[in-house]
Amino acid sequence: MTMMIIEALSGLGIFLFGMAYMESALKEMAGIRLKRWIKNSTSTTFKAILTGTIVTAALQSSSVVTLLTLSFVSASLISLSSGIGVIFGSNLGTTVTAWIVATLGFKVKIELFALPMIGAGGFGLIFSANRHIVVFSKVLIGFGLLFFGLELMKEAIETVAQSIDLAQYIYLPLIVFVLLGLFITALIQSSSAATAIVLSAIYANILSFDQAAAMVIGTNIGTTVTALLGSIGGIPDKKRAAVAHLFFNLLTAIVAFMILPFSTSFLLDTLALKDDLIIALALFHTIFNLLGVVLLASFIPLIAHYLERLFKHQQQVATKYIHKVDAHIPDTAMVALRDEVSRLFSKTMKFALLVANIKPNDVLKKGYDVKSVIEQNPMKIDFDHHKAYEKIKEIELSTLVFTNILNQQNLTRDQSHKLDTLMTSIRESVYAAKLLKDVRENMNEFYESDNKSMLYFYNELRQNLAFALNIFQHYIQESWSLEECKEKFQKAQDANNLILKEATSMMSSDRMNKTMLISLLNTNRSVYIAITSLFSASKGARVHFLLEHEE
User: 257: closest CA among 217, 287, 296?
Assistant: First the structure.
C-alpha cells in the first residue's frame, strides 16, 4: 500500500515536471511572436476570448496565459476588457488538456508513444545544434514525461483502489468533493494535473461520476489562486483582471454545481456515456466552461466598468518636494527644486555604491574608511539596477518639466544662476547613473572571477569609487572646503590612472584574460567619468543635502 502511494506521488511529480518542461519549451518555441499576437488579437471581445482559448490550448497551461495576461494588463499593453476576455478564453482552452489526457492517456497504450517520444527528444536534444530541433525535442520530452507520469499515477491509484472501502465515503455531500478539487489544485498549482488525478480516480472506480464532476468544478476554482498570487503588489488593473478570473470561475462553478444532476443525466443517459466515464467527464469540463463563456461574454464591458470602481488607482509620484508646490511661484519653487536636486544626488550616490557591491550606509552614514568599507562588503549585493536607474530617470523627467515651467517665470539674476546650477546637477547626476548602470554586469563578472589579479583590480576600483563619494559627502556637508575637495579628488584621479597603468601593463602577459582586461579598462574609464560628473553635480547638491532625511 505504501509503495503504491509513493508510486502515485512519483507519477504525479513526473507528470508535473513534464507539463512544466513542455510549457517552457512551447513558450520558447512561440517566442516574441506569440506575445505580439496576443497584444494584436484582442481588439474585440470575441477575438480576446478566441485568443485566450487558442493560446491556452497551444501552451497547455491556463495559469501561464493568465499570468501573461495580467502582465500585459499591468503594462497597459492591452485593455482591462481585453484581458478579461483572454482570461475567459483560457478557461475554455484549458479543457483541451483534459481531452488530450482523457483520449491519449486512457484510450491508448502509453508505452507505445510516451517512451519513444522521450527517447527521440533526448537524441534531438543531445545530437542537434539546430535551435528549432532542440526546442521541438524539449516539447517531445515534456509530452512524453507527462504521459509516462500519468501512467504511473493511473496504475498506482488503480491498485490502491482495490484496498479502499468505497462505502465509507460514498454518502459524503458533493460539496466536499468540490472543496477537495479546489484544495488539490491550489496545492499543486495546476488544474490540468488536478484533472488528471480526478480522471485517474474515476478510471480506477474510486469516484462516481457525480463526485468526479464535483472535483473538476473545484479544480476550476482552485486555478484562480495562481492569478490571485500573481496580482499581489501589482497595479489596480492587474488586481482587477485577477478578480475577474475569480468571478468567472466561481460563478461558472456555482452554475455547474447547481445543474450537475441534469448534466449527469444528459451525459450518461441521453448521450449514453455510462460506459465511458472518462470521455463524459472531459465533455462535462468543456460544457460548463463553454456555458460560462456564453453567459458572461456580453457582460465583459460591464464587469470591467464595475471593477474600475472596485480598485482605485493611486498615482505614484517619483518626486518628494516639487510636486507639492506651484512652479509658477519662483520663491517656493526654488526651495523645493533645491531639495529635490539634493535628493536626486543622494539617490545617485547610493546607486553608485550598490553598483560597486558596497552598502551605502557604510560610506554615507557610518563613515568607515575606504579599506574598512571593502573589508565590510566582500559579497555581491543583489538589487535590480535597471529598476533603480528607471526611478532616477523618473525623478529627472519630473524635475526637468518643473524647471522648464519655472524658467519661464520672471526670475531674478540670482535665481536664474541658481537654476542653471541645479539643472546642471540634475544632468550630471543622471549621466553618472547611466554610466554606472552600464557597468553593473561587468562589476559582477569581476566579483565572480577566480583570477587573483582581476579580483585585486575589482577591489581597487570599488575602493576608489568609495573614496571619491566620501569626498563628495564632506563637500556637500561643508565639512571640507572646495579647495580641500579638489586636492583629494586629484588623489582619486591619480588612483584611477594607477589602475589604468597597472592593468595596461598586463596586456603583454598571460596573467589575465584579454577580454576581461579590456572590460576592466572600459569599466575603469566609465567609473572615472561617472565620479567626475558626480563632482560637478555635487555643486548643486551642496546647497542643501538631505541624506540623513532620505526615506
Answer: 217
